[in-house]
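User: Hey, my collaborator sent me this sequence without any context and asked if I could get a structure. I don't really work with proteins. Can you help?
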Amino acid sequence: MHFLCFLSLLAASASAQYLVESSSFGQNDQISSKNDAVSGWHTLGEGQIPQLLSDKIILTPPYPGNQRGALWAEAMVSQSEWVAELEFRATGPERGGGNLQLWYAKDGRMNIGTSSIYTVGNFDGMVLVIDPYGGKGGGIRGFMNDGTLDYKNYHSVDSLAFGHCDYSYRNLGRPTKLQIKQEGNAFEIIVDNKLCFSTDKVKMPPDYYFGLTAASAETADSFEVYKFNLFTSRSITREEPRRAQPPPVGQPDNRGNAPPPEAQAPPTAPSDAQFNELQNRLQTMAQSIDSLFQEVKQLAEKSEGRHLELSRNVIAADRLSSMDQRLQGIEKTVRDYQGQFSSLQSTLKDSHSSLVEGLPKHMSDSMYSLTLPNCRPLVILRS
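Assistant: No problem. I've predicted the 3D structure and written it out in structure-token form, which is a compact way to encode the shape of the chain:
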């Protein structure tokens, strides 16, 4: 019996994993007690700085879009075998977009910063990319570089992936658990406890840094990070073993029979951390609402301007239509008068012809001469 316990202890010791606290955060579901910094990590951003809450880090907010956020570990990884665990969540509208990168690179904070796989230049290391590539709801791909290839100017970055798997990561309503394992000759990527892809051709060297970068599209996806844990197979200074310690050999384990500790009464009032988190969330909501209000106001002003312009165009069109109707009436009146003028001209012409033809005859019939003594003839015209 003692021999079996001893073998169990040897097996447990051989498979023990130790948490590297200097490169980990999110233990006990807490990121930062003061919501101002993540111990052992640098925060970077373009357009905004990642928002730190008590239980998560918002790398890219849901609004506005085209934002970048990054986290880089201050301490390099000194071991050659390790397991990295990331818990994240991505939410957004139906046509939202963005990407999340998990880096293991040399001098990542200085050489990579907030870049994505499509905007980074020369880097030395490995990166996992979570994005909608492939059109199947998303996927996870692995890329490597030895510092000689400029990804930003490469004609087909997507063709450089050394491994991939399809994974619909958006709007799951829960965090996704992503693991990278480098143990022995195996390099494995595991998502939600299922193998994504593996290879025996990859062996990353020590003394590199872990980092996270996220970028959102114009219609933004929000990337939230809940936890990052780094485990090694060897314990170093200030690291605690991941596994629970078994009882000494030969001593019965009475933990199952021990009376449970006295349950603590639930707090009657929120803690300071909860108040700070609530305040931060309210501030974020207020900023988003204010931005939306400003956009709605601008749209309303543009709409009013277009309405006035259309109104002026409609009034001008009405005036043109009225003038056209008046011109048509004038043309009709002119045509009517033209007919009357033609008839009058014909009548006058006929009257003139009759007068010209009958005037000599009438003058010969009505004219006679009166002869008087010693007087000149008197011509009398009959009326």
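In plain terms: The helical segments are 2-14, 108-111, 272-366. You can pass these tokens on to your collaborator as they are.
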